[in-house]
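Q: Structure tokens for this one, please.
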Amino acid sequence: MTCRNILGISAYYHDSAAALVAGGRIVAAAQEERFTRRKYDHEFPSQAVEYCLQEGGLQPEQLDYVVFYDKPLLKFERLLETYLAYAPAGLKSFMMAMPLWLKTKLHLHREIRKALQKRCTAPLVFTGHHESHAASAFFPSPFEEAAVLTLDGVGEWDTASIGHGRGNRLTLLKTLRFPHSLGLLYSAFTYFTGFTVNSGEYKLMGLAPYGEPKYVDLILEKLVDLKPDGSLAMDMRYFNYAQGLTMTNDEFARLFGGPPRRPESLISQREMDMAASVQKIAEKVVIRMAQHARELTGAQYLCLAGGVALNCVANGLLLREGIFKDIWIQPAAGDAGGALGAALFAHYQLLEHERPAGRMRDDMGGAFLGPRYSNEEIRSYLDARRIPHHFLPDEAELLRQTAAAIAEGKVIGWFQGRMEFGPRALGARSIIGDARNERMQAQMNLRIKFRESFRPFAPCVLLEDVAEYFDLDRESPYMLLVAQVRKQLQCLLSDDQKEAMQHSDLRRRVNVKRSAIPAVTHVDMSARVETVDEERHGRFWRLLKEFKRSTGCSVIVNTSFNLSWEPIVRTPQEAYHTFMQSEMDVLVLENCILRKTEQRLGIQAWVSPGSGNDVDPASPWADPLTGEPLIMTPSGGRNPATNVKYSVEEGIPRLFVPTEGLRQGEDVTEVVKQFYEETPFPNYEEVDNLRTLLEKAQKGLFARLLNEQIPYDASVVEVGCGTGQLTNFLAIAHRAVLGIDMCLNSLRLAQRFKVEQGLEQATFAQMNLFRPALRDEFFDYLICNGVLHHTSDPRGAFRRLARLVKPGGYIIIGLYSAYSRQLHYLRRVLFRRTGFTGGALDPHFGEVGAAGKRQAWFQDQYCHPHESCHTLDETLAWLDEEGFDFVNSIPKATGGPVLTPDEQLFAPHPKGSRSSRALSQLANIASGYREGGFFIFIGRRR
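A: Here is the predicted structure, written as tokens:
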């Protein structure tokens, strides 16, 4: 039987994907995360399947086979046996796992048919997990015969395997069984050192060179019995992953002198030494397993796959050991690659198609297997949104300008051709810069990727020049081999630099120049090399040739085109969004060049005309006493009509004037102002930076949606900004935002963070929201969350703020709910009568990390001197009276989900009926949407 079209699928564990093999040729492959924008998305890859069929020009009914990458029933057996073995421990983990299994994983036939619109009648095949990994490694490799080594966390029961491939046959000879696993051991240390399991292993590998492997003997004595053949037995008294929700337990913590590092806290020498130690263990295991594979198979070549195969440090060591003539690693070595391996296993092994012999290169095509976008599609998107750009039809000129920008120290977003398959950006969806620039690593980590400063970057080098820069004598097109920087390029360190290299603060060590290409030289003089050749890389290779022609250097920095919390970009829209969210200088979308300096922004922080006597119509400032425009400069503000002046101190315009016309006791402004002067809210932690602020905001769905949906050229004001965390967050994205508050101590914290993090687009000013020093009808978006209910006249405050919004602009107001706040009042009574605090009193209390932030939150919620509660019906009347149409509310006016990840905040929603609004708010009493009972409504000015 001839098989033409085979679809491979991986799902429900980590990094779901789909791959299409047609007639033995790899047509398309992509991870689901690139479509859903949920990093490491494990759900069924419906959109990736749709893309693969579209790329292959197929309908579901034209598929001959659909192959799933593991055996769910066997995995379910392992799950049940493990829980029974540890019972009654692990009950919570069991109860969390069962619903997904019973609803979905045990019904994969149904899920697959459903994803294919019930139009596919092709047989469904289930391969073994490690069979899929092994097939992804051997069948696309350039070798006719090879040993095959797969290592990961766990499949069904197996955690590692040794196999032998020859022609179109693949046989697994030996396996290691759960719970003993190198991948899970490495993940346990990832967890304990404060990183996220299944994604933070890269960080642990990058951290290792900063430490000393001082715990190797302890690990081998207490945790792992390592055999000569590389197999290992783990002492499960120290681990919790088999039955619990954490990787390690208290025994593990006692062994290493204390509890796990809290995520985002400072990294100590202990964590560096633990990383170095477990990396050494991983290298020992890989080398011993490889030696045993050579003995078992007699093969001269080795193929690798599984998540551990992405440990490029171990791969580089394995190559240098010379056990095999050469090694080849599947670029999508993790579970995503299992989809491709499953399809190839069916094509060659099950259907016995011949595998072409005598190939010079692998079949992965550079791993460029994802979607592409034409110049016409890109220009249509840019033109429709009036995004400034330059179209350069001449490729030579495009490359000349791009190479010149790199040489000038600019950071480039590079988007061209088909998207990569696997975790590495290889020149299609890349962020690139000058490897010779000693500031480039810190700039890319902290201002572009928003990730830890110690993380190393990979060099791209012309294949023909690789030996001039690195101790590497072969190609490394998939960035999966680490090699040393050539001795002649390494720098002799001064005494000050040597002292910095021993400093306990990682940031001091990172900034030491170690070679002539410092941006890609790790602390141990190593680099994760990508070689670039003409056949695989096309235009990217020609860019490096142009860079070499103009600078004499063949090496640039290459990292994936994404921010640290998001998947690699897939579309031009996502590329532009990431470009604007970071400090990238230039964006290249095929033949279109965009420069950050030419992008339109909203209001600018300071307006200082040359004469100093003219009012700028683009300035938002107005005299809080008269409403007349102000001339504002960094040194102060002045009303040219009256010559009244206002000071600017510590970078904060002081524009607060008291409310007039209220009798004694009616205005609570001063009381509330004093409360927040004593306890600014929300507070910052010592380790807070742009990355932690971004990651915290990303966890809050509402803030993330605001950031995604407010245009970059919009004029935005946050009223009652407190310590400015939302204002600073929105300003990171090159969006000019004005934050105002009456509390000076809160504004000082906001301004300090802004200055320390270099957020030029954020501006903070002190003013009274009843008498804002801002021009009417100026702003596109006004945000006022959780402020009006702390005033003596919320309705009057809304009326005054509404005047600031221009026609067609939006107002976003957050208030305490007269419904769901009642549960909080019961908690408050309990607190006042007992003095008890903690998670049992209020679940949100336990979610707040640092003590200072916890105290600030508790004071705001339980000790505030004044607040009011409101209903959605009440606010609908406010909107109508002030000339606004209702747009949206959270919770919905008609019931349903409070907020969804794809919510269009500013798309008109039905306002429902009086009864539906009441029921919707009643339904949220238990959850109290966010802390203490809260609702948000959005209006658009007519």
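A few notes: The chain has four domains: 5-128+338-349, 174-329, 375-596, 653-941. The first strand starts at residue 5 and ends at 10.
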